[in-house]
Amino acid sequence: MSITELIEGAKQVYDVGGVGCCLHIVLDDGNLNDGDVDFCIRRAEDHGHETCKKFAVRLRAESLEVREQLYERYDEYYTGTESLIQKLWRSK
Length: 92
Ligand SMILES: [Zn+2]
Fold this sequence. Notes:
Blueprint: H1 3-16, H2 24-28, H3 34-47, H4 50-60, H5 64-72, H6 74-77, H7 84-90
Helix pairs in contact: 1-4, 3-4
The chain binds zinc ion (ZN).
């Protein structure tokens, strides 16, 4: 899976539900370990969000390095409006 494809997939997740939906802790907060992605998969199952689940499963198959590369491109997949506070918090 290329980074470009992952960015596209992440955008679709934001279309499902605002701030990263079921993948909020990964896509917005940058918790990128296997256990964090597993948490998102379970959450997507609980919510019945197929798009979120599919993306989380895809992300689970990627290495930590790839997840980091994706998170570094937050500005490209984030489709909502970000408050100044969030921006400052992320730039720390
Ligand atoms: Zn969701």
